[in-house]
Predict the 3D structure of the following.
Amino acid sequence: MSQTPIYTEYHPRWYRRRTSTYWWLRRPSYLAFILRELSSLFVAWFVIFTLLQIHALKQGAESYQRFVDWSKNPVVLIVNIIALFFVVFHAITWFKLAPQAMVVRLHGKRVPAAWIAGPNYAAWAVASALVAWIVLGG
Amino acid sequence: MSDTITLHVARYRPEVETEPTFQEYQTPCRKDWVVLDALNYIKDKVDGTLSYRWSCRMGICGSCGMTVNGEPKLTCATFLTDYAPGPVRVEPLRNFPIVRDLVIEMSDFMRKLVQVKPWIIRADEKPLSEGEYLQTPEELDEYKQFSMCINCMLCYAACPVYGLEPHFIGPAAIALAQRYNLDSRDQGARERMDLLSDHTGIWGCTFVGECTKACPKSVDPAAAIQRYKLKAALSWFKSFLLPRGAS
């Protein structure tokens, strides 16, 4: 039994396909796209978390200790681990994008992508090591 | 290897059907045959009612884009033997309304193409007597890659953003805008900026990168869009810092 076609005002007979609800499972790059969209929530969460931390720090030692205790809560810990995964995913996307967005020429030739992405990763590693040293050792 | 292959071809005959169906055809599977050759064989020898677009058969005209086994492809450059023993599923390009069988409706793309003004814009034309606008090989290299676009729309079929948000200007139109923005003879970058830096322009793109993978001419529209994002962001930043002096 045929169904009534979706009529449009001027072109009643064009067939417009409906996008499947699960279109984003069709290929890995689509899934990565949706996860990247979702990552914005976790990036925002990290901003809020940092603001709360600064606020607690401003209120004094006792308030900061309360904040630290609260962040040890397993739920907060799990949320932060998931958020870290998404923020790292987000950062890697940016590093992948950098060589495509920046065109650097040396002696008339475009420098290879790795020359632009490489220093980005190196700077990331140095910054992470510095933060780790301050937090854990300093 | 068997010398025939099965094609499952999408049919949509609006006068008798309300939605597309698949029809099965057997065609010869020769080593030098592409999917388009098989469709031409069907049209000539088996079923003259099949409708599809094609013209040059050599990856220049951009007419024969279709979905082959789920991937957007130029059917003139997609060999049957790569899909042996088959079957091969041939459908119209995704993200566009279907007019008939494998023919899609492309006026949305044509409208967007004109909007980005893909031609050389001069603030002041110099008189003919002064000769042509000269360009060095380095200046040509700046935009040459983006000038290879053949408007085949495979990138639109591959782009999930265009599928979800039909107002998105889309990969090819932005790459072609960049082709002219990066041309040393062009002075129209400002005229193109409002449209391109709108939320339906470059900022609609979230760097999925499928457009670049689908492109049969290695244009890399994703790179064109990311480059323009950087340029637009810097230009906004400059106008923020130097509200009067920015150019």
User: Anything to note?
Assistant: The radius of gyration of chain A is 24 Å. The longest strand of chain A covers residues 105-106. The helical segments of chain A are 28-59, 61-71, 74-101, 113-137. Chain A has a mean pLDDT of 86.
